[in-house]
Amino acid sequence: MDRIPILRMGEFLLVTIQVDMHDRLALTLQDDLTSMIERSGARGVLIDISALEMVDSFIGRMIASISGMSRILDASTVLVGMRPAVAITLVELGLSLEGVQTALDVERGMRKLRGAMAVADADTGEVADGGHQD
Amino acid sequence: MAVTRTESLPLRVEQDVVLARQAVRKLTQELKFSLVDQTKMVTAASELARNTVIYGGGGQMKVEVLLDGAKNGLRLTFEDQGPGIPDLTLAMKDGWTSGNGLGMGLSGAKRLVNEFDIASEVGKGTRVMIARWK
Description:
The structure holds 2 protein chains of 2 kinds.
Chain A: E1 6-9, E2 12-16, H1 23-40, E3 44-48, H2 57-72, E4 76-80, H3 84-93, E5 101-103, H4 106-129
Parallel strand pairs in A: 2-3, 3-4, 4-5
Antiparallel strand pairs in A: 1-2
Helix pairs in contact in A: 1-2
Chain B: E1 2-11, H1 14-30, H2 35-54, E2 59-68, E3 71-80, H3 88-91, H4 105-111, E4 115-121, E5 125-133
Antiparallel strand pairs in B: 1-2, 2-3, 3-5, 4-5
């Protein structure tokens, strides 16, 4: 069965979608990614869609679900590389991917994820200072 | 207005949706649509082809290349012999869905094209026509 590979880079997971996905493949990715977050304890997920020539409502919904699910599993998601024509079409279609963090490219996306992690760690640090030492 | 080319693609299984959008991509490229217009037409086709497969129980996509004076266009007709849509006004509303989709398919597809027409009869099937001009 077809699968989209998920690469592990330290505390992050990297997914590069390079094929025109049929619906089941998109759903498989969603399942694979959530179990991988759980197994690896990843803190961030980077989804690169620079190779995608179109995102319709199904793929858009999959992206939004991945972002929501990973947030609940304590990992941030950043979507990177959306082509301008895809962005224009997606908004006109009626999807604005609210709640999904985006960045222009992988490098900026990585920076965003590191930033999100630093903020999260600082928050945890404050709690620890407040009397969580045993 | 003249129809300069006609073909028909089956829409039976999920993979056919991918083949349909690839066929539409190729045609819009041949017709020299702008990248944004190509993406809009491909995305609209993807939404409607999925509806045909999932809600219509399968059917076909008829492709027509149009010539009106010096203007080129592409017309796609999606036909199924499925259960039909009882309330078209409701089905065309953003966010309304009979299944587990986002409900952006029909209304979203309409926003992405220049011409849109839908006809449906309960128990007989549904036909959706879209067209986009260069």
